[in-house]
Amino acid sequence: MKKQKHSLLGLERVLPMLSQQRGWEEQLDLHSVFVNWSKLLDKDISDHCQPLKIISKVLWIEVENSAWLQQFQFQTVLILDVLNKSLRISKLKGIRFCVELEERRAAEQQKPALVYSQPSAEEITEFEQQIECIPDKNVRDAMIRFWYISHACKKGMAEK
Known about the structure:
GMP Synthetase, Chain A, domain 3, 2 domains, two-stranded antiparallel ribbon, 8 helices
């Protein structure tokens, strides 16, 4: 009997396959709007509003105040066109605007943007033990860096 060779695929090949198998490609494409917001739109627009959520291919945009809301409503077709041109495999059906809640704005101004909270030595050791079965040292090192950053940096959360 022949021994089968087990080859590990690199993360750069696994993640696209996984997103395709799970049907996440379209959602990832739609949500690229959040990542590229300030690059896609003029500074005048992106400084006064931000994408909030996408529901049924409709992008909800949170606007600084009612004056900007009215201004952006006149530019809805233009904004939608720019955003849809940036998408590869999906299209937004529409845009809805809402005024930013004062309470949330005040709370966000008080919170630090990013809080550093170092994982304990026990947590680091435990994770290293979990991934020691991965034969490729470079992959293990990349996994440890990714895990460490994801556990150490918390957006707007207080240190425990």
